[in-house]
Amino acid sequence: MYKKAYGIIETLAPLHVGATAGEESGNLNLIFRDQFTQTGILPGSSIRGRLRSEMRLLDGEQTANYWYGNEAGSEQSETNNESIIKFEYASILWLPVFCPGQPIVWVTSPRLLQRYQRIAGDSIKIQDKYLKQIEIPDPYTGSTNLKARESQSKKTLFFNLGFLTINQTTDLSPWFPSQKQKPAVIVEDSDIAMIHDMALYRQSRVRLKLDQKIVDGGGFFNTEALPEGTILVFPIAIKDDKSGKKWQPFNNTQTADIYLGGLESIGFGHCNLTLNEV
């Protein structure tokens, strides 16, 4: 049997988790994406690796091995590599998008909200109902605090690549982990991929020669990352432990600043991570 918990990640800087592809023809550092919504994800292995590293520094190798299993390739891993703490991938819950006049609108889709409802629905209570009992709003529902242009009882949001019509507004605060409503809109699952690509942080980088300020061979590449202000959610399973020990990855606190993903040396990956029990 497993106890349930979940984590909420809010990016404080662009977040890049992916693999380099096409080095010979463009050097594109693309992020990992969900196969259905084509929105960015953070693999569970990346979260586990970072938390393991933090615990190793605070409490030592033995404690890290106890909670997260033995590292692959070690002598102990051949006999037992199962961890007590198990992580799934983190998916986007809300994605900030530039919108003239706002200037930021947080966007999501029904599929992303369904995953959040499945993960946290038993622990979050809004008035007299749990989150799992609340119906997910229809697509093209906006928050009540949107500053959108109104015409014929409908609101319109203008993005860089087009406009979006809001059919109705409602209080979306139950769908934010802080339960504080931001300017937000829910779109169709079929539209979230296009809006996601419009919202990504992109940066071109070069590697210069040591003695001249010119590009060194193929040292020109582009990087994409989830923008600052993105909110992600991921589930955690905690195996029943007979020893009575309690998992405390942040030294007795639920929330901590942490670096996730790659390109930390140029300021990527700074996040706020909050852990919650179900």
Question: What does this 3D model show about the protein?
Answer:
The protein has 278 residues and is an alpha+beta fold. It has one domain. The protein is 17% helix and 38% strand. It contains 4 helices and 20 strands. Strands 1, 4, 5, 6, 7, 10, 14, 15, 18, 19 and 20 form an 11-stranded mixed sheet that branches. The protein has a 4-stranded mixed sheet with strand order 2-3-17-16, with no helix packed on it. Strand 12 and strand 13 form a beta hairpin. Helix 1 packs antiparallel against helix 2. The radius of gyration is 21 Å and the shape is flat. It starts with a strand and ends with a strand. About 3% of the residues have low confidence.
Radius of gyration: 21 Å
Q: What is the string of helix and strand elements? A: EEEEHHEEEHEEEEEEEEHEEEEE
Shape: flat
How many extended strands? 20
Layout of helices and strands:
Layout (H helix, E strand, L loop, with lengths): L1 E10 L6 E4 L6 E4 L9 E2 L1 H16 L1 H8 L16 E3 L2 E9 L5 E5 L1 H11 L4 E2 L2 E2 L10 E3 L5 E3 L2 E6 L2 E5 L1 E3 L13 E3 L2 H11 L1 E8 L6 E11 L5 E9 L15 E5 L10 E8 L1
Helix pairs in contact: 1-2
List keywords for this structure.
278 residues; alpha+beta; eleven-stranded mixed sheet; four-stranded mixed sheet; 17% helix
Give a quick summary of the entry.
By secondary structure, the chain is an alpha+beta fold.
